[in-house]
C-alpha cells in the first residue's frame, strides 16, 4: 500500500477518537444541562447534522484546492470543536456545547474524505482493501476515544470538560500526521476515465441501480447504527442505571466491532462480492434487534452492540467499495458529495429522532422501527440483481 494509505490510517485513528468521546459523553452531558429530557441526545445529533451539512462544502473545497488543504482545515475545526464543547460543559451552557458538537461534525465530514483519498491512491482492484485499511484506524480510536473520555472526566473536577480538551489535542495530532500527505490519484492516472467522455448529469448517474445499492448500504447502515448507538448510553446508564464503566465498555466494544472486521472485510468483498457482504451485514442487524429486544442485562447490550458494529462494517465497506464503479474520474466529487450528503443526512435524522423516540415511545419501539430499513435495502439489492440479469440477458441476445 502507498504511504498515503498508511498516513490516512494513522490520522483516522487519531481524528476518529473524537467521535466516541462525544458518543459516550454527549447524551450524559445533555441529560444534565439540556433544558428538557427529550433534548438529551441533541448534541450527538448536532454532530451528525454538522457532518451532513458540511459534506458538500468540503467536497467543493477539495475539488478546488485539493484534499491536503481540506485535511488541514478539518484538524483545525476539530480543535475548535473540542474547546467550544469544553467551555459549554464548564459553563453549563447547552447551546455552546451543541455548537461544539456541530463543529465536530464539520471536522468529521473531512475525516470521511480519508476513505476516498485512500481508494484514489491505489489501483481500482485494490480499492476495497485501501478503504478497509483506513477504516482500520477506527480500531485504535475505539480504545483511545473512550479512554480519553474517562481520563478527561477526571482532569477537571466535577465535569467532563477535560475530555473535550483532549479531543482538541487528538484533532491537532491528526492534522500533524497529514502534513506529510501528498495529493495524488491513481484512479485518474490509471486512465479509467477517458478524457473524451463527457461527464454525466446527476439524474443520469442516479439511473444506476448499483449506485442506489451502494448509497443504501452506507446510509441504512449508518442510520440504523446511529439510532441504536445514540440511544444506548442514555437507556443503559441513565434509565437502566448501569455504571459508566459498563456503559463505556459496551460502547468501546461496539466501536471495536465496527472497525476490527476491516482486517479482513476487504478480502471478503474481493472473494464474495459486495452484494453478499451486504446480505451478511443486514443479517447481523437483524440479530442486533433480536438480542436487544430480549432483555436489558449487560450481556444483551454488549452482544447487540457488537453485532451492530459488525453489520455496520460489512454494509459500509461494501457500499464504499461499490461506489467508484458508479462514476468516471471527472464525476467523482459529484457522486461522492451526493453519497455522503445522503448517508449523513439520514444519519442526522436518525440521531435527532433517537432521544425523542426513546423517551417518548421506549427502547423496544425504537428497535422495531429499524426493521423497515432492513427491508428497504433488501429490495434495493433485488433491484440491482434484476438489473444485472436484464443486462446479461440483452447481451446474450
Outline of this structure?
The chain is mainly alpha-helical and 397 residues long. It has helices at residues 3-15, 18-33, 42-65, 67-91, 94-111, 113-120, 127-155, 161-177, 186-189, 202-205, 209-239, 244-259, 265-272, 274-293, 298-322, 332-361, 363-368, 371-396. It is 81% helix and 0% strand.
Could you describe the 3D structure shown?
The protein is an all-alpha fold. 81% of the residues lie in helices and 0% in strands. It contains 18 helices and no strands. The longest helix is centred in the middle third of the chain and has 31 residues. The termini are far apart.
Keywords:
0% strand, mainly alpha
Q: Specify Rg, calculated over alpha carbons.
A: 20 Å
Helix content: over 70%
The oligomeric state of the chains shown is: single chain
Mean of the pLDDT scores?
Answer: 83
Label the overall shape.
Answer: globular
Structural class: mainly alpha
Q: Strand tally, please? A: 0
Show unreliable segments.
186-196
Distance between the termini: 42 Å
Write the H/E string, N to C: HHHHHHHHHHHHHHHHHH
Count of individual helical segments: 18
Beta-strand portion reads under 5%
Largest sheet: none
Task: Provide the fold topology.
Layout: H1 3-15, H2 18-33, H3 42-65, H4 67-91, H5 94-111, H6 113-120, H7 127-155, H8 161-177, H9 186-189, H10 202-205, H11 209-239, H12 244-259, H13 265-272, H14 274-293, H15 298-322, H16 332-361, H17 363-368, H18 371-396
Helix pairs in contact: 1-6, 1-7, 1-8, 2-3, 2-5, 2-7, 2-11, 3-4, 3-5, 3-16, 4-5, 4-8, 6-7, 7-8, 7-12, 7-13, 7-15, 11-12, 11-15, 11-16, 11-18, 12-15, 13-14, 14-15, 14-18
